[in-house]
Design goal:
Shape: globular
Distance between the termini: 71 Å
Radius of gyration: 27 Å
Largest sheet: 6 strands, mixed
Helix content: 10-25%
Strand content: 25-35%
Number of helices: 11
Strand order of the largest sheet: 2-3-1-4-5-6
Mean pLDDT: 77
Number of strands: 27
Low-confidence stretches: 1-39, 95-108, 127-132, 487-495
């Protein structure tokens, strides 16, 4: 609990009397303070080619902000001595013994530190090709990114691949950190050359960096203070730069997207639980539940104690709601307002990054995970392969996507899916593909695809046109002019 919260608590107790209502108000103020503090935590992922200095940078940030636990430096020095290596700030992050032996980061590591401005969670993501899956899982929760480029080695293939993945994940708040400037004598022309090259590539991805910052993580230049070695650079140090990043605003004003996490039964109440990803939800609101399009109204928000009772909930809050009508609801459905419908489709176009051990194969079944929804899908077509290092389209027709491949694909499901185009909603416009038990691919939805007539099975009789798939469970009664459901044993007779 912060000092500010303690002060407010003491004032309320002294001036508010002894009744229960006052105590509830005191607790509510404390809870609001805690929520406000949590909302001011910014998550940043650090990505880039292996050995370009990501872990060293983060270690230096922890050191320069006095965020290291007691004894951490001594532990790292001991490990360095045991392995016969010089002290490295990067070892502060390499929590696994195997990583310290190999000198590479295998899994994502999340650490907290604080500047005078706010709290941060900073994520160190792997750089080796075989660890890209871990990098994706780490970066997916970040709001901003630091893309590292070695001043001496320049822009590498892995640098561009990681930049492409940032664009797929929708991370737009990016600083390009040009590291190891000490190895090129802090020369401005080296900085300008790299800035020009990586800048052109990022613009093609519609990623526009907030700035390009030259640093030496090892020497501490331009990390927590301005570098005298690079007086020609007038921009911010890294700590000043990240303090300038603003949280995404306007989520409360976007269309409601409330993926159902689960449905619970308490007494005579059915509570629909989940996290509001965007928009605002109020008691009395008319809502639609997709993909079926069921409509009802919000009757109440579930609560345990009187102090938790609410009439409205906002983006980022996890809530339980009770609706007026008794429907069969399930995990994966999306609750929205009636006027802001998502896309309901069995088929969509996507930009996909493949990370599976085996190649992605056209026609093979995979599990799609999107928000809380899970569905069996196939990639029915690879529209084009893309070289992630230069964004060139590869002209050859392919039935496979190999590891680290990028492609535009068509994905199909057996049943309707509730999705959004990524530009409209990141949460319901971004997905992963699971092959067996492994997350093997990730991507963003770029367009909904309409089923072709020959895929549906169309028949014509005079002026009438019908879909043959209707006869799986229904038939058209020409006498009563209606659709009637029949049991499966009757179908051969009707057909």
């Amino acid at each position: 609990m912060s000092l500010e919260i303690r002060v407010k608590l003491n004032i309320k107790i002294r001036t508010g009397g002894k009744n229960m209502e006052t105590n509830i108000k005191v607790k509510q103020i404390i809870q609001e303070e805690k929520i406000a503090a949590l909302k001011d935590v910014l998550k940043i992922v650090v990505v880039g080619h292996v050995d370009h200095g990501k872990s060293t940078l983060i270690g230096r940030l922890l050191y320069d902000t006095n965020s290291l636990p007691e004894g951490a430096i001594d532990k790292v020095k001991r490990i360095a001595k045991e392995t016969g290596k010089p002290f490295e700030y990067a070892y502060l992050l390499d929590a696994f013994e195997e990583e310290q032996k190999q000198g590479i980061t295998i899994d994502t590591t999340q650490l907290q530190f604080r500047t005078a401005q706010r709290e941060y969670v900073i994520i160190d993501a792997p750089g080796h090709k075989e660890f890209l899956k871990n990098m994706i899982s780490g970066a997916a929760n970040a709001e901003a990114a630091l893309l590292m480029v070695d001043a001496k080695e320049g822009v590498q293939e892995q640098s561009k691949r990681h930049a492409y993945m940032l664009s797929l994940l929708g991370i737009k708040k990016v600083y390009v950190i040009i590291n190891k400037m000490d190895l090129v004598d802090y020369r401005k022309e080296v900085y300008e050359k790299i800035k020009l090259e990586i800048g052109a590539f990022l613009r093609a991805l519609n990623v526009h960096p907030l700035d390009y910052i030259p640093v030496s993580a090892f020497e501490g230049e331009n990390i927590a203070r301005h570098s005298e070695q690079m007086a020609w650079f007038n921009g911010p140090s890294i700590i000043e730069a990240i303090d300038l990043i603003k949280h995404e605003e306007g989520l409360n004003n976007k269309p409601l997207r409330f993926p159902i996490q689960d449905v619970y039964k308490f007494d005579d109440r059915r509570i629909i639980a989940g996290r509001i990803e965007s928009g605002t939800l109020k008691v009395g609101d008319a809502i639609t539940i997709y993909p079926e399009g069921k409509t009802t109204h919000v009757k109440a928000f579930a609560y345990w104690q009187e102090k938790d009772k609410k009439e409205v909930a906002y983006a980022g809050e996890s809530v339980g709601i009770i609706v007026e009508d008794e429907f069969f609801n399930k995990r994966g459905e999306i609750i929205t307002h009636q006027e802001n419908a998502p896309v309901v489709t069995k088929k969509f176009r996507a930009s996909l990054f493949w990370m599976g051990r085996g190649p992605l194969e056209v026609g093979k079944k995979y599990k799609l995970k999107l928000a809380t929804e899970e569905a069996e899908v196939v990639v029915s077509e690879i529209v084009k392969l893309i070289d992630a290092t230069n964004l060139d389209r590869q002209s050859e027709i392919s039935k496979q996507i190999t590891m680290n491949g990028v492609a535009e694909v068509i994905i199909e499901a057996k049943d309707n899916l509730t999705v959004d185009l990524f530009g409209d909603s990141q949460v319901t416009g971004r997905f992963v593909l699971v092959d067996g038990y492994d997350v093997a691919g990730g991507g963003i939805i770029t367009a909904a695809e309409k089923a072709k007539a020959q895929e549906l099975g169309i028949f014509k009789a005079g002026q009438l046109t019908g879909r043959t798939d209707l006869f799986d469970e229904f038939y058209y009664n020409v006498f009563d002019y209606g659709i009637e459901k029949v049991s499966k044993w009757m179908m051969p007779i009707l057909l």
